[in-house]
Design goal:
Elements: H1 2-16, E1 48-58, E2 65-68, E3 71-74, E4 80-81, E5 93-99, E6 105-110, H2 114-117, E7 122-132, E8 139-143, E9 146-150, E10 155-157, E11 166-172, E12 177-183
Parallel strand pairs: 4-6, 10-12
Antiparallel strand pairs: 1-2, 1-5, 1-7, 2-3, 5-6, 7-8, 7-11, 8-9, 11-12
């Protein structure tokens, strides 16, 4: 019996005790026993948008400014490059997801040229705020300070959509015609 007890004590002291955080004399857990954590990416709160456009200019090494379709967008520490930065070339068709208020690039990647040549390409706006709704939902809307239009072909999801609703919108870039509008949970939008 003493032998079994001795084996258990030895097992506990050599295998289990290093896994238990034991405070030092100063009351702190030694660094070797602290859990390793991955750095968390900071997510920008607010409206996000996705566009397709021709990459007009960028500096592959020094600058954090990308010009797409004549509009400048800036990278930040957590920008994701789905295409390696060194592989971008002027004239590439890119899909750009950006933070609507700041213009910070969240994700950018090179896509097929046909995405940029389609004048009816759908752009997206996520977590946006409805500020004005037309009667019967058809007509001119104001979403995040911009005018959009709806017609009989517009699809509405998760109705009723009302003032200050949190919505995701897919629209035609040139005409600002909404093809799909979906009401989202209030907790999804930062401004609630």
């Amino acid at each position: 019996m003493k032998t079994i007890f001795s084996i258990v004590v030895i097992f506990f002291s050599t295998i289990i005790s290093p896994l238990i955080a034991i405070p030092t004399a100063t009351g702190e857990i030694p660094d070797s026993l602290r859990p390793k954590s991955k750095p968390r990416k900071s997510k920008l709160f607010g409206v996000r948008a996705t566009i397709y456009g021709s990459l007009d200019s960028f500096d592959s090494q020094l600058s954090n400014i990308f010009t797409v379709g004549g509009q400048q967008y800036e990278t930040y520490d957590d920008t994701e490059f789905s295409t390696q930065r060194k592989n971008f070339q002027q004239g590439d068709c890119v899909k750009l997801e950006y933070h609507y208020e700041t213009g910070y690039i969240l994700d950018i990647k090179v896509v097929s040229q046909k995405n940029c040549s389609n004048s009816k390409q759908l752009f997206s706006l996520w977590d946006a705020k409805v500020e004005k709704i037309p009667k019967d939902l058809l007509g001119t809307w104001i979403i995040n300070g911009e005018k959009f239009k709806t017609n009989k072909k517009t699809r509405f999801y998760n109705e009723p959509i009302d003032m200050f609703s949190c919505v995701d919108v897919k629209y035609v870039s040139q005409s600002k015609l909404i093809k799909k509008i979906k009401k989202e949970s209030r907790r999804k939008c930062y401004w609630y």
